Amino acid sequence: MKTWRATAVAALLMTFGMAAQAGVVVGGTRLIYDGGKKESSINISNPDKTPYLIQSWVDGAENGKTAPADKAPFIVTPPLFRLDGNQQNILRVVRAGGDLPETKESLYWLNIKSIPSAEKRENTLQIAVKTRIKLIFRPSGVKSTLEESAKTLTWKRTGNRIQVTNPSAHYITFFNVKINGSAMKNVTMVAPQSDASFDLPAGVTGGSLSWQFINDYGGTSKPFIASL
Question: How far apart are CA 99 and CA 67, in angstroms?
């Protein structure tokens, strides 16, 4: 009996996983909002035969915590719509005020929730999938590129941690950071004009450091080299 139940649960989880993978596709892993333009947009497509209800909104980050959507100076249009099977639509993000810095980027989050349509039946489970991607507002006065900014990063060891300093105007999101060829874990990003620190791997005292960042299109940069 226990074996039968375990098999049934595993099959159910696999079914849910396949359903989530086959759902709505967001056309990017991040959205860069050019401050010199009136709006920014991203494509949403539905490769399924099943229609989905799409709900979208923007929220912010305050001291590392998620801020309510009403505090984010952006609106998404359309905020709620039906996306039929094998169709696509465009989400437009428009700035709605806000006193944002003009000398460095600001980070927000674009949330896209997809709810599949389903016939009303007893004992059915409906799963809504939410995709959350970075929305980075880049002021028109920021002329430097991510690659130029990556070259300005400085690294140093502080105890059992490694500290990175970012004097640039950009958010730098790391794809990987390696010391002597070994990848560090839980390395995320560093905010503009800020520091960030991460745990060093056990037994590492120094040596050659390399890193790659994620560019505006979700791709990875060439490796950069430094020494500790």
Answer: 16
Burial of 215 from C-beta contacts in 10 A (0-12 / 13-18 / 19+): middle
**For residue 53, what are the CA distances in angstroms to 4, 39, 48, 168?**
35, 23, 13, 40
CB-based contact 105:192 (threshold 8 Å): yes
- The answer to whether residues 190 and 141 touch, using CB atoms and an 8 Å cutoff, is no
Three-state DSSP class for 116?
strand
Digit-coded pLDDT (tens) for 119-136: 665 666 668 899 999 999
Q: Which residue pairs from 196-202 have beta carbons closer than 8 angstroms and sit at least 24 positions apart in sequence? A: 196/163, 196/164, 196/166, 197/158, 197/161, 197/162, 197/163, 197/164, 198/161, 198/162, 198/164, 199/160, 199/161, 199/162, 200/157, 200/160, 200/161, 200/162
pTM recorded for the entire structure: 0.84
Dist CA 21 CA 78 (whole Å): 24
Give the model confidence (pLDDT) of 133-173 as tens digits.
Answer: 999 999 999 999 999 999 999 999 988 899 999 999 999 99
In one-letter notation, the amino acid at residue 170 is H
Q: What residues have CB less than 8 Å from 112, skipping those under 6 apart?
A: 24, 26, 44, 54, 55, 56, 91, 130, 131, 132, 133
